[in-house]
Design a protein that fits this description.
349 residues, alpha/beta, TIM Barrel, 2 domains, binds S-adenosyl-L-homocysteine
């Protein structure tokens, strides 16, 4: 059954007509405002007749049942665990910074991309999320941020799942964020493992969202091992798709690079990565992060001194790079740690 944030405005109009064909047209606007401006429950929409509120509560079910909420960084990082229709579980992370507040959303329950160093990949794929299940994560996070007088300014598709494997639902949610929640496309980031057909689809979409690519290795031999989908879409093909995205949107791209001790943190890795960055116009930005611990991957993150040296080397070689601060490691809310309590399959290597 469609949940409350799955409906388009036309869909909602049809739903209201089914509930009562004689309803005035402005009821649709009132319901839409309840969903996207007040962000409240149907029972609270007191500008509607009571009987209609009761009908709406029944026909517009919520998608997310709260399971737990964990807090870290003195309240600045909040991780939500939700249960979905059918029983699968997902997580959402709200991160409060001095100058912005970011919601990290899940696009799938689990993930099929099987990156060995990522807890979501270790747990495997359960199912796609609907656009309503994606949107409601943000609605709930906005409500939570409001409790501490903060406004959500950014959304990143960096939670569980591969957003470009579920592009249609992800795109429908992006339209809601941009058009109905006042979060402009420039503040929305889609992060991908490198699904080239998905990047190509995104290139044809009308809004200029930010693209982040989880690169982690800049030669095919290493990337084939770290990010298995690289065997299907090798680096040259992937960088070609990135180049076309940049040409179309005129935005900077970012490369995510989880630094793994002795694996992808050598000077030769920096040189290969810098060469890729220099080949892209208007530019690429590298986000470095020491690999976070996950139950199914033996190798640890690079020491911070090496991370900083790697960044300095990239800069010297003409590539922009920042070392990202880690959030919520103690509550398993950091990059690559979201498993929603799933048992993890320990890989053989
Ligand atoms: N599937 C998409 C969205 C997930 S984003 C993607 O791959 O981009 C989550 C980010 O965290 C990705 O960049 C991912 O590669 C990175 N990541 C995964 N495991 C990690 C770990 N153990 N430590 C640090 N980053 C990790």
């Amino acid at each position: 059954m469609a949940t409350r944030y799955d409906h388009s405005r036309d869909g909602l109009t049809e739903l209201l007509a089914r509930i009562d064909p004689d309803l005035p047209r402005y009821r649709v606007d009132q319901v839409w405002a309840g969903l996207y401006e007040q962000l409240t429950e149907p029972a609270e929409w007191t500008n509607l007749p009571k009987a209609l509120r009761a009908e709406l509560a029944e026909h517009l079910p919520t998608a997310l049942t709260p399971v737990t909420e964990s807090v870290s960084d003195r309240g600045d990082t909040v991780k939500f665990l939700w249960q979905l229709e059918g029983g699968s579980r997902i997580e959402t992370v709200l991160m409060l910074y001095p100058d912005r507040a970011t919601v990290c959303v899940s696009s799938q329950a689990g993930c099929a991309m099987a990156c060995g160093f990522c807890a979501t990949g270790q747990a495997g794929f359960t199912r796609h999320l609907s656009s309503g299940e994606i949107v409601e994560q943000v609605i709930r996070a906005i409500r939570r941020a409001r409790e501490v007088d903060r406004r959500v300014s950014n959304i990143v598709f960096m939670g569980m799942g591969e957003p470009l494997a579920n592009e249609a639902a992800v795109w429908a949610s992006i339209e809601r964020f941009h058009h109905d929640l006042g979060l402009s496309a420039r503040h929305l980031t889609v992060s991908t493992v490198g699904l080239v057909p998905g990047i190509r689809t995104l290139t044809t979409r009308p809004l200029p969202v930010n693209l982040a690519v989880s690169l982690h290795a800049a030669n095919d031999e290493l990337r084939d091992e770290l990010v298995p989908i690289n065997r299907r879409y090798p680096i040259d093909t992937l960088v070609g798709a990135c180049r076309d995205y940049l040409a179309e949107k005129g935005r900077r791209i970012s490369f995510e690079w989880a630094m793994i001790d002795g694996v992808n943190d050598r000077p030769s890795d920096a040189a290969e990565l810098a060469a890729i960055c220099r080949s892209l116009r208007p530019g690429a930005h590298v986000n470095l992060i020491p690999l976070n611990p996950t139950p199914g991957f033996p190798t640890v993150g690079s020491p911070l001194t090496r991370v900083n040296e790697f960044r300095d080397l990239l800069e010297t070689l003409g590539a922009n790079a920042t070392v990202r601060r880690n959030r919520g490691t103690d509550i398993d809310a950091a990059c690559g740690q979201l498993a929603a309590g799933q048992p993890v399959v320990i890989s053989a290597r």
